[in-house]
Structure formats: C-alpha cells, structure tokens
Specification:
binds nicotinamide-adenine-dinucleotide, 8 helices, 263 residues
C-alpha cells in the first residue's frame, strides 16, 4: 500500500487501454484516493464508470486548450479532493496529418497545437494546481524514446516530447524547494487511442518487440507499477528524471542480429 493516505489527480484517461488507466489501477490498488479529468462529453461517458470502479465519483472537465477549463481546474479539484499529493499528466495530441508525412512538412498550426496540448499543459496545469499540491508531492508525465532519437512518423511529437522532457528538468528545479518531484516515464509503444494516430504504429510495435532485451512490448500495468513507485515516498529522492519502462529498448544501439546480417 505505497500510496495509502495519498490523493491524486489523473489527467489523460480516455478508456481501459489508456496508459492513465494502468496507472490509476495500480494507484488504486496501492490505496490512493483518485480524481479524474475528461476531455469532452464523449470521453466523460467512458471515464465515469471507470472512476467508479476505482471507488471515485470525481470527474472534472479538462480540455487544456480551453481557457475556462484551465481557470476552473484548481477550484474544481479543491472542491472535490481538497489538497492533493500527486498529479499524473498522461496527455498528448497532434493532428494526424503531422504524424504521417515528413517533419519538414509540419504546418505551423499543427506544431502549435501539439506543443500546447503535449508540453505547455504540464507547465500550465502545475502552475494552477501548485497552491493545493502538498509538500513532498509528486508529478509524473509520459514521454517516448522518439524524444531522443529519430523514430519514423513520430515527427512533431518527437519534438514535443523533447520539449516535455526538458520541461520535466526545469520544473523539477522550480519545485524542488517544496519537496515536490517531477519525473517522466518513457514508455515503450503500447496500442492506445493516441498511438493509433501515429503512421505505421504496428511496425513500431513489431520493431520494439524484436529488438528489446525482454523480447516483448510493455503493458499499461507495468507502466502503472513504475508510476506508483515514482508517486510514492519510495522515490522521495528522485526528481527531474526520465524513467524507462520499455523492455530495455533504449539501451540497444544495434540490434543483436545486425552483425549476422552484415556477414
Ligand atoms: P490515450 O489516447 O489513451 O490518452 C491520451 C489522452 O490525452 C486522452 O485521454 C485524451 O483525452 C487526452 N487529450 C488529448 N487532447 C487533450 C486536450 N486538449 N486536453 C486534455 N486532454 C487531452 O493514449 P495513451 O497512449 O495512453 O497516451 C497517454 C500519454 O502516454 C501521452 O502523453 C502519450 O504520448 C504517452 N505515451 C504513449 C505511448 C504509446 O505507445 N501509447 C508510449 C509512450 C508515451
């Protein structure tokens, strides 16, 4: 029960396949009291029963591009949960066009929306919730290997994830004197709604499976387990870090069968 007595807000649950679902499930198993946000009415219908299954009737509207939702976020969280101990930021978006062609073709408006939803939202949400975030609190966001290295079709999202990982480090410094920690989890590819927007995603799954030390892809439960660690007091000394839950894929410079192919 690593999160016994702790309260947290989960941002980014869309359905049972969401990484946020895996995190909420593990956090609930570890005794946390949870509140959830939802993007729109269609998502609300799916989030409410899921929240119930985790013993929560707290669902709050939040489209991070809607200034009214952002302004009301703090009071809504405060009314329903009071002060919180942790925040899970598990959202990203880029228009499908920007995730299929080449990076050089990226339109300004697609770039801006990707950066607003996937990067600025972490800063904007943290800014607003800071007054009700308890000392020694923890913030976790989700990133991907495409932030560090070229991954086909990831394009503008790779650029956004690089910025997000940098935001993790800068926020970690800003919040360090309150004991609040900010970390990212770099998850391996997982079939979710957001992932289906990435061109050739199935090949990405296959490639990771084939070239990771564990020889398989990761699950949302496994991401949830690492998130619970980072949200808990066990990780009290960990901040500004990117923690990999990717079957070890990030350590591979060259697939082990590559040299055989060259002979
Ligand atoms: P998902 O589709 O289940 O979750 C994405 C969430 O973002 C949804 O809940 C959606 O409602 C929310 N969202 C989109 N636009 C929003 C907006 N304007 N305001 C508020 N919320 C908005 O997919 P997921 O794969 O679970 O994605 C969660 C996070 O994990 C993302 O940051 C994603 O980049 C990251 N990630 C995913 C993978 C993967 O392979 N699935 C790998 C590494 C990192």
């Amino acid at each position: 029960m690593l999160l016994e007595g702790k309260k947290g807000l989960i941002i980014g649950l869309a359905n049972k396949h969401s990484i946020a679902y895996g995190i909420a499930k593990k956090a609930h198993e570890h005794g946390a009291k949870l509140g959830f946000t939802y993007l729109n009415d269609a998502v609300k219908k799916r989030v409410e029963p899921i929240a119930k299954s985790f013993g929560s009737d707290i669902t709050i509207p939040l489209d991070v591009t809607n200034p009214e939702d952002m302004e009301n976020l703090k009071s809504r969280v405060e009314e329903s949960l009071g002060n919180i101990d942790f925040l899970v930021h598990s959202i990203a978006f880029a228009p499908k066009d920007a995730l299929s062609g080449k990076t050089i073709e990226t339109k300004r408006e697609d770039f801006l929306v990707a950066m607003e939803v996937s990067v600025y939202s972490l800063i904007g949400i943290t800014q607003r919730l800071l007054p009700i975030l308890n000392r020694d609190g923890s913030i976790v966001t989700l990133t991907y290997y495409g932030a560090e290295k070229f991954v086909p079709k990831y394009n503008v999202m790779g650029i956004a994830k690089s910025a997000l990982e940098s935001a993790v480090r800068y926020l970690a410094v800003d919040l360090g004197d309150r004991g609040i920690r900010v970390n990212g989890i770099s998850a391996g590819p997982i079939k979710t709604l957001a992932a289906s927007g990435i061109g050739d995603f199935r090949n990405l799954l296959k490639w990771n499976e084939r070239h990771s030390p564990l020889g398989r892809n990761v699950t949302i439960d496994e991401v949830g387990g690492s998130a619970v660690y980072l949200l808990s007091d066990l990780a009290k000394g960990v901040t500004g870090e990117i923690h990999y839950v990717d079957s070890g894929y990030n350590i591979i410079g060259m697939p082990k069968e590559a040299t055989e192919k060259l002979q």
